[in-house]
Each structure stands twice: as structure tokens, then as C-alpha cells.
Specification:
Elements lengths: L1 E3 L5 H13 L3 E3 H7 L4 E4 L3 E6 L7 H9 L1 E4 L2 E8 L6 H12 L2 E9 L13 H24 L10 H17 L6 E3 L8 H5 L5 E4 L2 E4 L8 H5 L5 E3 L15
Parallel strand pairs: 1-2, 1-4, 3-5, 4-6, 6-7
Antiparallel strand pairs: 8-11, 9-10
The structure holds flavin mononucleotide and iron/sulfur cluster (2 copies).
């Protein structure tokens, strides 16, 4: 069974490809998080968790969702973190999570995909992102082959710097950066409601036909990246950054 969380579509795309290759069922964590629902899942096949990398680690919302969810049947768990280049020491935390959940950790693989951090960094242009997605598709197929054979993902070498960025830097990142106070919509907003519908944490509502953010944000970039009118900015930091969104609704 393949579980995915995705802000702008990279991890969703990977999960869909994986389910096509493995012929396995796919579950959107976004939907469960949005509804605030919990469930028990029974799978005869290995569990495959696909998510973005947030500050060199699995997103906190994904870690929390896995902790609160019951898994029955096959307890082998694979993790695929889509990222712009590095997952640091993320595997150690996924391994710890598996030990706590009684799951058998079968490795964490990084999958390089286009950077989606529209709020605070520039995203690749169209030619560049198409090239990155092509390579990512090939890597997804090779990771699926390992899962099919029941082999673990190869270990990612970890440096002292990786331990620092996935540890204390990750903690500081959430405290200092992961807030929604910087988001605002300009007069270009058409009140289409897409940001409201797409926010996986139900953190946005329309007030007087303008989005208002409600303080529960994980910086997934679905709102700013997916706004069809490009009406959303994050303070002045997002100005001029190319919007990135390939999520299938
Ligand atoms: C809040 C945030 C933090 C990120 N941190 C990292 C990181 O530590 N390392 C990295 O390589 N990419 C990082 N990225 C890039 C994303 O992990 C990457 O673009 C991912 O594929 C997005 O997946 P999605 O489209 O499924 O949401 C970050 C992006 C965001 C929005
Ligand atoms: S997605 Fe954009 S245009 Fe639509 S309501 Fe949100 S801010 Fe306005
Ligand atoms: S408010 Fe925007 S960035 Fe924050 S969780 Fe919702 S969609 Fe993602």
C-alpha cells in the first residue's frame, strides 16, 4: 500500500508512478489530514510512504499521521523522500519511528525532484523541471524494482553536518520559518477558493472574498504554488519566484 503526502505534486506523482508499477493501492494522507480522520489500514504488500523533505527530514505532519495510524498485515516499511537535493539524516528518524510503531524499516531513499519552496527560494524553469522529472521517473522505477524483490533501499551515508541539519537546524527551522503570517493575497485574487480546497491542513478560509490564513501551516506551498491568479505572496520573499504546482486535484 502506497501512502503519500504532497504539497505541490512531486510526491503525489511519485506515488502514482509507484502504484502503477507495483499494481498497488494508493492512499492520500492529504485527504485524511484535511478531514482530521484516523483509520486502520490492512495491507498484504509492503507499506511505502512517499513525502517531501522539509528541512532535511520527513514533514512533522507526516510523522504525526503515521504515529496515529494503525497498520495491519505486512509490516515492512519503505520511505521515499522527494527533495531538491538532500535529506540529511532523515533515515535515522524514520527508523526510530518504525521501531516505535512495530514496523520493519526497509530503508529511506531520496528522490531528487524540482524545488517547490516558492515562498523562500526560486524554483526551476520549465525546461529544467521537465529534465528533473524525467530522471525522477527512472529512479522511481528502480526503487520500485527493489520493493518488488523485497530488498531494502541502500543506506545513505551520513555526515556530521547531516546530523546537525536534520536535528537542531530542523527544530529551529520550524520555530523561525514555518508560520503563515507572511502569506497575503493581492487584488489579483478572483476568490476562486482553490487555495481553501487544496490546503491539506484546512488552514485557509475566504473572508470577504479574500483568503485568510488561520495559524496552522506546514509550509507545503499548495496555496502559493497553486493559485491560478498568482495572487499569493509570502512577505516580499516570494516576489518574482516562479510558481510551482503539478498536483492532480
Ligand atoms: C518547507 C520546505 C522545506 C524544504 N526542505 C528541503 C530540504 O531540506 N532538502 C531538500 O532537498 N529539499 C527541500 N525542500 C524541497 C521539497 O522537499 C521538494 O521540492 C519536494 O519534492 C516537494 O514535494 P511535493 O511537491 O510533493 O510537496 C523543501 C521544501 C519546502 C516547501
Ligand atoms: S487560489 Fe488564488 S485566486 Fe483563488 S481564492 Fe485563493 S488566492 Fe484567490
Ligand atoms: S496554508 Fe498554504 S502553505 Fe500552509 S499548509 Fe495550507 S496550503 Fe500549505
Amino acid at each position: 500500500m502506497i501512502f503519500y503526502f504532497s504539497g505541490t505534486g512531486n510526491s503525489q506523482r511519485t506515488a502514482i508512478q509507484m502504484s502503477e508499477i507495483l499494481g498497488d493501492e494508493i492512499v492520500s494522507m492529504n485527504k485524511y489530514l484535511k478531514k482530521g480522520e484516523k483509520d486502520t489500514f490492512h495491507s498484504e504488500d509492503p507499506l511505502v510512504f512517499v513525502a517531501p523533505t522539509y528541512s532535511w527530514k520527513m514533514p512533522k505532519v507526516v510523522d504525526g499521521w503515521i504515529r496515529e495510524t494503525k497498520f495491519e498485515g505486512n509490516s515492512n516499511a519503505y520511505f521515499i523522500l522527494t527533495c531538491a537535493g538532500s535529506v540529511g539524516n532523515a533515515a535515522a528518524y524514520a527508523k526510530e519511528l518504525c521501531a516505535e510503531k512495530g514496523l520493519c524499516f526497509c530503508g529511506l531513499a531520496l528522490l531528487i525532484m524540482p524545488n517547490n519552496y516558492v515562498a523562500l527560494s526560486n524554483t526551476p524553469d520549465e525546461t529544467e523541471y521537465k529534465g528533473i522529472l524525467k530522471k525522477a521517473g527512472e529512479r522511481t522505477a528502480s526503487l520500485a524494482a527493489l520493493i518488488k524483490k523485497g530488498e531494502p533501499f541502500p543506506e545513505i551515508p551520513v555526515t556530521f553536518k547531516d546530523k546537525i541539519v536534520s536535528g537542531p537546524v530542523n527544530g529551529l527551522f520550524y520555530t523561525l520559518f514555518v508560520h503563515d503570517k507572511g502569506f497575503a493575497a493581492s487584488d489579483a485574487c478572483t476568490a476562486c477558493g482553490k487555495c481553501v480546497k487544496r490546503c491539506p491542513l484546512n488552514n485557509i478560509r475566504l473572508v470577504d472574498k479574500k483568503p485568510v490564513w488561520n495559524g496552522n501551516c506546514t509550509h507545503c506551498m499548495a496555496c502559493i504554488g497553486g493559485c491560478p491568479a498568482e495572487a499569493i505572496e509570502y512577505k516580499s520573499a516570494s516576489r518574482g519566484n516562479r510558481r510551482y504546482y503539478i498536483m492532480e486535484d
